[in-house]
Amino acid sequence: MKQLLLIAGFLIAHIYSHAQHLARMYEYDASGNRVVRKTLNIKSASAQDSGGDSTHLEDVQRSYAETIGAFTVSIYPNPTTANVKLEIANYEKLVNGTVSVYSLSGQLLRAFPITSSRLEIDFSPYPAGMYLVRLRLDDYKDEWKIVKQ
Asked: What single DSSP character describes residue 36?
């Protein structure tokens, strides 16, 4: 009996530790029906991840990766104090892409075309608060809430 409880405890601990790295987000239509389910992979930075580079370790507090069409987009750090980095896998397949930054009131603060697989968005001119980053990759679009501290 003790062995069974011990094994069950280890399984629960393993499942719980794995679940901490996944976040699920849902979108609903006006009637309350779920229309989109997104699973985000959230990685906490460690010295091993950064190869010992302490500057990189400070930058990568949490990384969010999401698949949008044929592209995988990583965005980090969130929350941020200055810059947010975007990395787009399969960038070479991109025909037309744009990044837009909005305030929560809907005001367009900045928009620019995607010209490489790695981009930095400078949030230093903006006061602390929450912002929306909208990304358009060909016919696909998505958005993230970014916290500026």
From this structure: E
CA distance 132 to 78: 12
CA gap 66, 128 in Å, rounded? 25
Query: What backbone phi and psi angles, to 5 degrees, belong to 114?
Result: -85, 120
pLDDT in tens, 23-32: 566 677 676 6
In 3D space, the residue among 82, 74, 63, 67 whose CA is nearest the CA of residue 131 turns out to be: 82
Q: pTM for this one?
A: 0.60
Go through the domains of the chain in sequence order and give each one's CATH number.
21-148 (2.60.40.3080)
End-to-end CA distance of the chain: 51
